[in-house]
Amino acid sequence: MLGKLSSSLKESIRKIAKAKRIDKRTVDELVRDIQRALLQADVKISLVKELSDHIRERSLKEKMLLNPREHVIKVVYEELINIIGKGVEVPLKPQKIMMVGLHGAGKTSSCAKLARYFQKKGLKPAVICADVYRPGASDQLRQLCDKIGVPFYDGQPEDRNVLRIVTSGVNEFDKYDIKIIDTAGRHALEPEMIDEIMDIEKATKPEQRFIVLDASIGQQASVQAKAFDDAIGITGIIITKMDGTAKGGGALSAVAETDSGVAFIGTGETVDDFEKFESDGFISRLLGMGDIKSLIAMAEESLNPEDVDVDILKGKFTLKDLYMQLEALKKMGPFKKIMQMLPLGGLGVDINDSMSQITEDKLKCFKVMMDSMTEDELSEPKIISGSRLRRIAHGSGTSTAEVNELIKYHRMMQKMMKSISSGRGNMPMMKGIPMGKMMKKMR
User: Could you tell me if 341 and 418 are in contact, meaning their C-beta atoms sit under 8 angstroms apart?
Assistant: First the structure.
């Protein structure tokens, strides 16, 4: 998510963390690095200038309660949160939600993702399709709803009366907690489109009115958000395709200048690639500080207590334990996404792409290798070398390099979990956080 921006910001933070002293020259260099990263992410020049001034002022003149390095990092963290806004709180209670947006923004798939979000929270969602214009719109949404077991309504065959469809749908799903209304998209902000959504809003009186925006439009997000807000009073914004554009930062900062806040972000293709937007966790991830709160929420939604039978925080765990843990983590989503939610930037643990891309085939390969090990080797991987290494490779049909990869991965995970359990790290936002206790909630 926002890979280039995140990489640039992490590098800026690393420079400050390693700086021998914090002075005007150091802060100016930091500000230039951040300016470059934000402008490349399509953040408005005026916002970048404002943020730069605040970082300089606070870093050098504000009273420090932390050491100078931690103080500067904390300032950067807080100022980045300020430019993207606090986000919108969506209550977990019965409500009608109207979805609007331009064609191609990802509105239809976002309807299914939103339904899935509420479904995982224990509510009963249903979806109503009011798009009678785009060929295949109804079929696409019906298929997505069928995949997640959510009821779907699109009116009687050949019925193209949008108001009749939405009012009938609301009545049809009277006993459901969440009623999501998918309206038609357009290629531009046409008067006819605005008139139709105003009529739907008056007929259904939805508690929530969400606009869906494509992150790739960058700063233009504010123009669209304002136009829809003037028409029906937008209560929240969903920004899609955050995983596939460099302009997501621009979209986030642009809508923060409107009266509407971001409620959710779409981060991938599947119905589970959808997150409640929380600015503090989002910025924390961008800076490599992790997002433990979101990680715990994912774990609570995805795992049963019996899924994790080992204590991953004991500092030392066997290869069998590692395999069981990876199997459990797979249920929570892409492994790389989970790694981004851990505070690895402050722990000195470097997770590269090859480490994070643990696939089904890789897990199977690991299992075959472990089947060729003795109990002593499974319990004490450090004894594996020389003849033992060659025997395991031969017995599992793999190479010694692949066996070494498994052992290296085990050591890396062991180090990371031990660091997290003890709460070590040099990032100021991690100070005083009971990392061990929070991670145990995943069990």
Answer: no
**How far, rounded to the nearest angstrom, does the alpha carbon of residue 51 sit from its chain's CA centroid?**
24
pTM: 0.72
pLDDT at 342: 60
Residue 162's Cβ-side half-sphere holds a number of Cα atoms within 13 Å equal to 21
Q: Which CATH number fits domain 95-286: 3.40.50.150, 3.40.50.2300, 3.90.580.10, 3.40.50.300?
A: 3.40.50.300
Q: Nearest Cα to 124, choosing from 82, 200, 47, 176? A: 176
Residue 117 φ/ψ region, left for φ over 0, alpha for ψ in the -120 to 50 degree band, beta for the rest: alpha
How far is CA 135 from each of CA 28, 101, 139, 140, 162, rounded to the nearest angstrom? Answer: 54, 17, 9, 9, 15
Q: What are phi and psi of 181, to 5 degrees?
A: -105, 115
Choose among 435, 417, 441, 433: nearest CA to 313: 417
Confidence (pLDDT) at 401: 94
Please name which of 57, 14, 61 lies closest in space to residue 33, comparing C-alpha atoms: 14
